[in-house]
Amino acid sequence: MRTELCDRFGIDYPIFVFTPSEKVAAAVSRAGGMGVLGCVRFNHPDDLDAVLRWMDENTDGKPYGVDVVMPAKVPTEGTAVDIDKLVPQDHRDFVTKTLADLGVPPLPEDAARNEGTLGWLHSIARSHVEVALKHPIKLIANALGSPPKDVIDQAHAVGVPVAALAGSAKHAQRHADNGVDIVIAQGHEAGGHTGEIGSVVLWPEIVDGLAESSPDTAVLAAGGIGTGRQVAAALALGASGVWMGSAFLTAQEYDLGVRSGEGPSVIQQALLAATSADTVRRRIYSGKPARLLKSRWTDAWDAEGAPDPLPMPLQNVLVSEAHQRMSASADPTTVAMPVGQIVGRMNQIRPAADIIAELVAGFEAATRRLDGIRDS
User: Fold this and answer.
1) Which pLDDT band, with edges at 50, 70 and 90, does 344 fall under?
2) Which helix (H) or strand (E) covers residue 29, if one does?
3) How far out from the chain centre does Cα 43 lie?
4) How far apart are CA 185 and CA 61, in angstroms?
């Protein structure tokens, strides 16, 4: 499974794993892949700095990266206007009624309220970059396309490559023209923000386009990858590695979401019960199209009379506490969780290192099978 990205980053396997959990990210890096910590949940630079210090101490010197969300700047950002005041009251009333209809309990009186993830804001994403570059990170990825040129230059000045997600060959070429080092070709099957083109079509289209115009730009395949056979398919289609996320939401180390006792969290309970048909692609999570687990919450937004989702970042401000309440409840049918169609194969809780090992074993079995076909 070794590719040139292994040598470039000092990793054993070209498996890059995005995760909002520092414990999963560290476990992936220790197991020979590249853990990439999602930063969007950190509203304050000091909180991110503390978690990255933990990463520095718990990755055994193995490389890790960070993922930021750097959207286009909203018109009111940087002014005295309070973004919270831009959320219409009708939308707030809909969320309040929906939570009551679903039987989602309020948070305890002493619980800290999540008033909206400021990491969706351009300025906060920039602060994430500033903090991350003070640590020995080996990659910065941007979930919403190319970062501004000055951010790319800032990373390059200290030897840190930059990656960006693309859902079309046009987007991939734009990233390469902007100086991005690695394009993450993310197919329609992926969880979270994703485009319209299926992975098997998208991956070779981006690989071939960049090979002709920007041969130094590497490609990671993303979307629908959860087995070693799918890793083999991605590399066979020309990618230099894979970018995964959903398959590690059921890692034993995943520590976000409320657990009752030692069992899986309510989020993981929902994921374990789902099939590959149980996802929808909607704007209700962040304001941009994102693939989510289908639940009674997503059904409510699809029902007649539901309001249209707000643009980013206002939608997140609207639903942030609702997400917190659903994750803290005991009902897995109401969660709001980004996940890809590979969720149908996520049927057990196990250590991240075991997931990596199974990917490697599955890759080796697939390539041996292909060798047998070739030699027969």
Assistant:
1) very high
2) helix 22-30
3) 17
4) 28
